[in-house]
Amino acid sequence: MADVKPPERKNQRIRTRKDLLTAAGRLMKEGRKPSLDEVAEAALVSRATAYRYFPNIEALLIEAALDIVVPDGSELFVNDPSTDPLERIDRAEAAMHRATFENEAAIRLMLASSVGRDVREDGVPVRQNRRTPLIQAALAPARARFDDESYARLCAALALIFGSEAMVVFRDVLGLDGSTARKIKSWAVRALVRAALEESRSRLRRPERKPAGRKRLGKIT
Predict the structure, then answer these.
(1) CA–CA distance, 7 with 90 (Å, rounded to integer)
(2) CB atoms within 10 A of CB 166
(3) Cα–Cα distance between 129 and 132 in angstroms, integer?
């Protein structure tokens, strides 16, 4: 049986990878190209650790540059009082779409550097999950309208539409331009949210079953 990594170790690896990207982005904003040693030092990790997450400084800097332009959910909705999950998820996807299509060349380089790695080799994350926090921020005001199972399924389905993979499909497989792709994705994310809301409504209306109790015996006369 395969060795299952504890959740805390997985979370720590995700944080370490994020720390490296953040450190690289901070150094790049100073107007220079840092070395892997400099990024590792700024992230408070060893050079060997940095190499576990990124094969070379070029791969790290490409993704760090993308990390800066990808929309952050807390910033995107900072002064937005809306609670409609359809409108909010469409706004989030529009922001991600813009960041993806405007940085297509860099994203293709990032995909090329990560596609050959197997996440099962050492448990080190191959990619940073930027889309899920954005999706969750968009759905947050309406979270109570979804049951847990429908919510988890919705977030996973939306992750297929948000981000770089969808861009590759629209560009390379379907041969569609960014404007057409955005219209299709807007339709798709709204349809998924509607389906999850309808599914949740039927489940949340369902009466909760009471555990079967012991039958009381009648009086013996």
Answers:
(1) 31
(2) 20
(3) 6
How far apart are the C-alpha atoms of 24 and 30, rounded to whole Å? 10
Tokens of 40: 């590792």
Length of the chain: 221
Q: Supply angle C-alpha 109, 131, 13, rounded to 5.
A: 75
Written as six digits, the tokens of 187 are 């339709």
Query: How many C-beta atoms surround the C-beta of residue 73 within 10 A?
Result: 21
* Cβ-based burial of 126 (10 A; exposed 0-12, middle 13-18, buried ≥19): middle
The neighbour count for residue 187, using CB atoms within 10 Å, is 11
Cα–chain-centroid distance for residue 204? 27
pLDDT, tens digit, 9 for 90 and up, residues 95-151: 999 988 988 887 887 777 776 665 545 556 667 788 999 999 999 999 999 999 999
pTM, full prediction: 0.72
Compute the distance between CA of residue 118 and CA of residue 56 in angstroms, rounded to an integer: 17
| Alpha-carbon gap, residue 28 to 157, rounded angstroms | 34
d(CA 175, CA 177): 7
Helix (H, G, I), strand (E, B), or coil: what is residue 117? coil
Question: Cα–Cα distance between 110 and 95 in angstroms, integer?
Answer: 19
Contact 45, 16 (CB under 8 A): yes
